[in-house]
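Notebook entry, structure prediction.
Reason for the run: the old model in the group folder had no record of what sequence produced it. Starting over properly, with the input documented here first.
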Amino acid sequence: MHMNKYTSSDREIIRFLFEKDGWSDLYDLHVAFLLSPAQVLDLLERMVAMNFAEVKEIRARLTLTGREWVLAARKGIFFGTEKSGWKPSLEELTHKALDPSAPYLPKLRLVDRTFFQKLPLDNPE
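New structure, fully documented this time:
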């Protein structure tokens, strides 16, 4: 199984199965990591298709080929985690740092100019 990216649930399932010498109860996997049956079965179906795992009723285990694959691909599986999502923009990277001793000044264009007019300062209720 040569995938470019492994999800965190894939990593947990692979590690869980690798740590067990024999059959593992899939319900224990669900309880340990709060994974849905779809998450577990998605990976297991792919691993069974490549002869990396065996599934029998609600139990699963890695085959010898699967154990060898985990050892050979461990760097890509467990250390190839690319963070996708937020990346700082060029403006955020090059933004000049504020002086901690400088007083705070709000951006006046963002202040509602009618705010103080709406305050009930005359009515002490």
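Summary: The radius of gyration is 27 Å.
The old model has been moved to the deprecated folder.
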